[in-house]
Every structure is written in C-alpha cells, then in structure tokens.
Amino acid sequence: MPLVFSMTTEKMERMSEPILIVENVKKYFNTARGIIKAVDGVSFFVNQGEVFGVVGESGSGKTTLGNMVVGIYTPTSGKIIYKGQDIAKHAKERPKWLKKDIQIVFQNPASSLNPRRTIRQTLEVPLKVHMPSSNIAERVDKLLEMVDLPPEFAERYPDELGGGEKQLVAIARALATEPSFVVLDEPTSALDVSVQGKIIKILMNLKKRLNLSYMFITHNLSLMSNVADRVAIMYLGKVRELAETRDFFLNPMHPYTRMLLSSIPVITDEEEKLKPKRIESMGEIAGALNIPPGCSFHPRCPFVMDVCRSVDPPLNELAPAHFCSCHLYTTSNNAYDKYKK
Ligand code: SF4
Fold first, then answer.
1. CA 301–ligand 1 middle distance (angstroms)
2. Structural domains in the chain?
3. With bands split at pLDDT 50, 70 and 90, how would you rate the model's confidence at 286?
4. Ligand 1 test: best mutation among 307, 311, 326, most atoms within 8 Å of CB?
5. 217-237 b/e with 16+ CB inside 10 Å = b?
6. Is 298 close to ligand 1, i.e. is its CB under 6 Å away?
7. Ligand 1 pocket test target in 282, 291, 304 with most atoms within 8 Å of CB
8. Which residue, 94, 277, 286, 293, could crosslink 98 as a Cys pair with Cβ 3.0–4.6 Å?
9. How confident is the model at residue 10 (pLDDT cuts 50, 70, 90)?
C-alpha cells in the first residue's frame, strides 16, 4: 500500500471522513508509439468542504486524474472511493446519484457550451435529467443569480457573452444538479486576467455557501496559495510532494517544487525574501513516451545523485502531513543543506 494512503487512513481518524479517497490509481494509454503512463500510482484524499489543489505542468497527468474522478476515463488500476463506494468506473456505468453528485468545470468555456443553445436551454438540460420535479424556470433564474449573472442572460447565446461570463454559465451548469464535489480543471487559465479574480471569488463563495468540496487542478502555483487547503504537485504522472498549503509554500521540500516557487515573479522585496533560493532547471520536461528511469525529474535536477537515475523514490511523510518523494531526504548525502535557506 502506498505510504500516502497509509497516512490518509490515519488522518481520517483525526479529521472528518474524507469525501474522496484515491488509492494507487494508474491510467495507461496504449498508443501506436508505445504506452503512455499518464497517471502512475497516485494516492490522496479530499476532505468534505476542502479545496484540494493539484498542480503540475502540461503532461503531468493532473487533467487525466480529474477525468478519472468524474468518470470520463476509467482507471487502468487502483481505487477511487467516493462517499465510501468504489466508483472507479466510466460515467456510463455509474449510478445516477453519482453522476449528479460529482461535476466538472472545464478549462475552455467556449468549447464546453453548445453555441446553438441559449443559456436557458443549456441550464435546462441537467435540470431535466437530474431534477425533473423542480420548477425548472425558477431554478434557471436561481442558478444565474448564484453565479452573479443577470436574469436576462438566460435568453442569450454563448456567442453573445464574454469569456468570463461563459465560464460562469459553465459553473452554473455544474451546480444545476446540486453536487457535493466539483472538479475544477484550470477554470480560469483560458480567461483574461481581469476576470480571473472575479471567477475565483465566486467559486470560493459558492463553496462556502453550498458546502462543496473542490479538486482544483491548475498549473498556477501562486493561485493555490490563496485558495487551497492542501496542495499536491505532480510530475510526469506521479505526486512528488503533498502538504497543507501553508507548509507547502513556507517549507517546500522537493527540488521541483522549489524550482517552480523560486521562479514565481513577485513585486515586493518582502515577497522575494519568502521565496526559496533560486533553482535552475538543468533541462526540459521529458516526453510522456520516454519517462526517465528512477526519479523522473532527475534529468532536470541540479542535485541528482547516482541512486536517482535508477531508483524511483517513494512518497514519504517527512514532516507531519508533509509528503515528499526525493532521495535527498533518505540518503546520508547532505546535498539538501546546500540549497536550503
Ligand atoms: Fe533530484 Fe534525486 Fe530528488 Fe529526484 S530524487 S528530485 S533527482 S535529488
């Protein structure tokens, strides 16, 4: 059993029951050019009412992970336990209550809305399927109000809306079924910076008001520092560090995390002082078809040791609830001290 999962079981006893437990989940794709290990043995849990941030560059497997939680993909192996039941199945095989209870907001609102449907027709679709006994017209008005859009928007088409407004409609559609859990897959990264803050604020208010749990997928680490309760960082299909948000940002352990944090642009000297010492990447991220052996980050890591090239480090709990997968912490080599502040 992966270490992170044994931690989750222990932690479960101390905290409220997690709404979602992902246990050693893998997703491999067979392609003409070979097997792509998009997600390769990932474990974590999400507590009720929590914002769990999943961060990673393109190709890290974070979106594939989110797609497995909502049933767009079936895992190759592993368990996804939601409200006590194993749900590691494609959405087509999932019971109706589950399809209603877990929703997703995609990155690109323009492609996720049907251009031939008015906003009212778009919002009516999930309501008719999942909430047929409700007053549908009234619910549409209520959903628009919840995402801060005026009622007259119901008669408009997606083309008549701005990017942020389209994303608000996509959020309203996700909330139409009154879910408990929402996967937010880069919900603001396709939007103009000027509207990103507004969308985040609405999402956070809705979480509080409706007691939602979020799995928030993003490449934007600094955004996570403001919204997440805990953060996991993925690299080439694996979680390399996972910690409570404050600890994650104040005491980052993995060289990859430190590299990303040290490259975030800041404005003030105070902020600069809080950043880890700058770490330069030694190379480019490897392709999904040729993941390096051992620690997959080793071609880019300035602290690489011989062991890193052949042995993949496990995800160990190095401080309370702070997990990291790196040989620097398990060897007698003191290379870590060289870059610690
Ligand atoms: Fe770097 Fe080795 Fe740690 Fe990987 S295991 S991050 S290569 S020091």
1. 6
2. 9-340 (3.40.50.300)
3. confident
4. 326
5. bbeebebbbebbbbbbbbbbb
6. yes
7. 304
8. 94
9. very low
